[in-house]
Amino acid sequence: MLPPSRRDFVSLTVSESGSYTNSKQWRRQSCWRKWKRLSRLQRSLILFTLMLLLVCGIATSPTLIRHWRGEMQVRCKNGVCSICSLINFTRKSAFFLSKNYHIQIWRGAVIEEERASDTDTKDTEIQDDPASVALAESRLEAVREAFRHAWKGYKNFAWGHDELKPISKSYGEWFGLGLTLIDALDTMWILGLKEEFAEARQWVAKELSFDKNVDVNLFESTIRILGGLLSTYHLTGDSLFLEKAKDIGSRLMPAFSTASKIPYSDVNIGKGTAHSPQWTSDSTVAEVTSIQLEFRDLSRLTGDPKYKLAVMEVMKRVHKLDGKQDGLVPMFINTNNGLFTHQGIYTLGARADSYYEYLLKQWIQGDKTEKELLDDYLQAVEGVKKNLLKKSTPSGLTFVGELSHGQFSPKMDHLVCFLPGTLALGAHYGLPADHMELAKQLIETCYQMYAQMETGLSPEIAHFNMHEGSTQDVDVKIADRHNLLRPETVESLFYLYRFTKDKKYQQWGWEILQNFNKYTRVPTGGYTSINNVCDPASPIPRDKMESFFLGETLKYFYLLFSDDPNLISLDKYVFNTEAHPLPIWPQAE
Ligand code: DMJ
């Protein structure tokens, strides 16, 4: 074998007398003579064949096809940018062009300003060998196709209503505010589905009214409706969405009129009244602490501090409360006295999950200036490590269990699978490197929650085995076998892929998407949640497509399969807990 230095090139020797140039001229003349000797028919045939080859070559070039379809992307490598590899120019001029000539905004290929550090340059590299580009494009198209299929069902059977019931070809109403349509707006924008977006915008302009005598849940309507409208406004610059966001935002404010400043769970947006559920005066901790990104953004956009003040008061009070264990919070808080209730139970799943997510994300949104939020987040991660992390048998998967009055339970909700993504995001922002290591371990576990099921789809809740001799890591109780098309694992796969570029995360996501297509896709349009992930022969449809399937799950699939780090850059945007990207504030504010 040749030494490395001699392996990768061939040499060409040119004689001193210049005979190489002479022989080239001679060959050119002899070709011309041969050409002239051909009959007119022969020449026409050759020219026709060459033209045909040229046309076929252009038509099958993925780069040019994308160019014609308006999918221009600016690619930057070592300070040099190109649009579809056709034009080369510096990154600065790319930004200039984007501003002045409006080079693509569809497909969300938002062109970012030059970035500060050298290490960041690596992030802007795009894997652009033809095979990777073709694979990525086919997967992105598969997501667009899935969205169109879901949208077809929604449009035909549930247009303007909250949720599609794809099996009965009807709809379900929760707030009566077109929840799926609003949740899906920015997904359509990011996926480049122009026609669908235009139809939906028309509905928002003509039909959407918040002047309705209806009780809505503060948290759900904030993350899905307010969050969806705000992010669509940020992505499109269309003031229609800002006006609607202001309207719903101000109608939700009565929820904060409590003695404790801890908001009620329900608001009547027509009457301007708010209350707790009938059976309790408690609110859920995750709910009152996961509305902050949206209301803070609304204050920034309107210049009216009242929204931000209301939600930050909640954070201040929760920050000071007794009843936490190593930074972990209980699941309920009382709206009369502002104290935690049902103490002693700690989970990263339902009712507490997004409290942890929003500690980190508010700190990021505020450009890393709010120290209390960071302190609480760091303490909570330590609390998770100390109290809730264990390994399963036989594979040694790291999982996050629950604590109930000092007793550990190896129960993990699928909802907990937001955590690897959040930990990875924190590590990206300079938090301890072991957060990233933990993120990698946990995403493996979340993937296994899918891979170890007969359908390849995760149950709502998994119980991990810890006793010696167990032959499988995950047990699923009969009541926990359903799958609601939830996004958390895909969300975390997206973050892990963005930060590590490890292709296995895309591959895992691809398997999951195929299994959604296999077991939850309804032929007449839409996707349905199912009752039994353990039985491929009879997964049993539940006849409901949750709005977050379009708002979150498909959006995160798309972002996962995209190799463009500027497609909703994580240095510019922070996603709310319903996958609606909101801008990170510049330091000066
Ligand atoms: C979504 O509404 C949000 O992601 C929320 O934080 C948790 N539940 C659903 C998705 O599973």
TrEMBL record:
<keyword id="KW-0812">Transmembrane</keyword>
<keyword id="KW-1133">Transmembrane helix</keyword>
<feature type="active site" description="Proton donor">
    <location>
        <position position="220"/>
    </location>
</feature>
<feature type="transmembrane region" description="Helical">
    <location>
        <begin position="45"/>
        <end position="65"/>
    </location>
</feature>
<dbReference type="GO" id="GO:0005975">
    <property type="term" value="P:carbohydrate metabolic process"/>
</dbReference>
<feature type="active site">
    <location>
        <position position="353"/>
    </location>
</feature>
<feature type="active site">
    <location>
        <position position="488"/>
    </location>
</feature>
<dbReference type="GO" id="GO:0036503">
    <property type="term" value="P:ERAD pathway"/>
</dbReference>
<dbReference type="InterPro" id="IPR001382">
    <property type="entry name" value="Glyco_hydro_47"/>
</dbReference>
<dbReference type="Pfam" id="PF01532">
    <property type="entry name" value="Glyco_hydro_47"/>
</dbReference>
<comment type="function">
    <text>Involved in glycoprotein quality control targeting of misfolded glycoproteins for degradation. It primarily trims a single alpha-1,2-linked mannose residue from Man(9)GlcNAc(2) to produce Man(8)GlcNAc(2), but at high enzyme concentrations, as found in the ER quality control compartment (ERQC), it further trims the carbohydrates to Man(5-6)GlcNAc(2).</text>
</comment>
<dbReference type="GO" id="GO:0004571">
    <property type="term" value="F:mannosyl-oligosaccharide 1,2-alpha-mannosidase activity"/>
</dbReference>
<keyword id="KW-0735">Signal-anchor</keyword>
<dbReference type="GO" id="GO:0005509">
    <property type="term" value="F:calcium ion binding"/>
</dbReference>
<dbReference type="InterPro" id="IPR050749">
    <property type="entry name" value="Glycosyl_Hydrolase_47"/>
</dbReference>
<keyword id="KW-0326">Glycosidase</keyword>
<keyword id="KW-0256">Endoplasmic reticulum</keyword>
<keyword id="KW-0479">Metal-binding</keyword>
<keyword id="KW-0378">Hydrolase</keyword>
<feature type="binding site">
    <location>
        <position position="577"/>
    </location>
    <ligand>
        <name>Ca(2+)</name>
    </ligand>
</feature>
<dbReference type="GO" id="GO:0005789">
    <property type="term" value="C:endoplasmic reticulum membrane"/>
</dbReference>
<keyword id="KW-0106">Calcium</keyword>
<feature type="disulfide bond">
    <location>
        <begin position="417"/>
        <end position="446"/>
    </location>
</feature>
<dbReference type="InterPro" id="IPR036026">
    <property type="entry name" value="Seven-hairpin_glycosidases"/>
</dbReference>
<feature type="active site" description="Proton donor">
    <location>
        <position position="460"/>
    </location>
</feature>
<keyword id="KW-0472">Membrane</keyword>
<protein>
    <recommendedName>
        <fullName>alpha-1,2-Mannosidase</fullName>
        <ecNumber>3.2.1.-</ecNumber>
    </recommendedName>
</protein>
<keyword id="KW-1015">Disulfide bond</keyword>
<dbReference type="InterPro" id="IPR012341">
    <property type="entry name" value="6hp_glycosidase-like_sf"/>
</dbReference>
<comment type="pathway">
    <text>Protein modification; protein glycosylation.</text>
</comment>
<comment type="similarity">
    <text>Belongs to the glycosyl hydrolase 47 family.</text>
</comment>
